[in-house]
Specification:
alpha/beta; Rossmann fold; eight-stranded parallel beta sheet; disordered C terminus
Length: about 230
């Protein structure tokens, strides 16, 4: 898929849009398919709980190098950004997946690295992840407004939009289809293509062919506590 065909893949979006789950799945998928050095960067300074750093042991076992803010996974409220994260733009990684914190506040952390990103911009795809079932993401106007805020604070304009419509285990193919209609409207307004549609594998066959061509299947590994408790 063109959206994932880049050395650096950066995921931005509203809080709760599913960036972290998707970032983890992309990193693991690339690891299974390709050789070389792969890095997963947790650049989330907003949410200390539901973050990719939680799965660092799993990623390391699979041969993925992990970078995260100082004090991540601790009781410190605001993690600091260590100098070593700068190294992901200077070392010889073959693939780097960057999970940015939610909304424009989280994107501010990405903006700090603008001087290092600029020389590599042509090797990078920035994905704007949208789940219309999350607050502040249910209308075209809200999605467009968040896009503009993230672009401003992150100092990067997203290259693609991602239809990450999901209601956990209750997600139906029709939910993705309805979200695609909404995001198509946004795509035309922003002049940013929909480059990826993500969801569980069981839904793919129920989608129209044009949506199947953009479909990235994944199995969730970061279920919320309330969902785990029901199992």
């Amino acid at each position: 898929m063109q959206a994932l065909n880049a050395r650096y893949i950066v995921l931005v979006g509203n809080y709760g849009s599913g960036k972290t789950e998707l970032a983890l799945s992309i990193a693991r998928s690339i690891r299974k398919e390709k050789q070389g050095r792969i890095a997963m960067v947790d650049l989330d300074i907003v949410n200390p709980y539901f973050r990719s750093a939680e799965k660092s042991e799993l990623l390391i076992e699979e041969g993925i190098e992990v970078f995260m803010p100082s004090f991540a996974m601790s009781t410190v409220d605001i993690p600091a950004l260590p100098a070593q994260i700068q190294g992901i733009f200077e070392q010889d990684f073959d693939h780097v997946i960057i999970d940015v914190g939610g909304d424009d506040t989280g994107a501010t952390a990405l903006g700090r690295y603008a001087p290092y990103i600029k020389p590599l911009r042509d090797q990078m795809h920035v994905l704007y992840v949208v789940n219309p079932y999350r607050p502040l993401s249910g209308t075209a106007e809200a999605i467009e407004e968040m896009f503009s805020l993230i672009e401003l604070k992150g100092r990067l304009r997203p290259d693609y939009m991602v239809n990450n419509c999901n209601l956990q285990e209750d997600t139906k193919a029709n939910d993705l289809i309805e979200a695609q209609t909404l995001l198509t409207q946004v795509s035309q307004t922003l002049d940013v293509p929909i480059g990826l549609i993500s969801g569980m594998d069981k839904l793919k066959s129920e989608l129209p062919p044009d949506m199947q061509a953009l479909y990235f299947s994944f199995t969730p590994i970061m279920k919320p506590d309330w969902l785990v408790d029901e199992e």
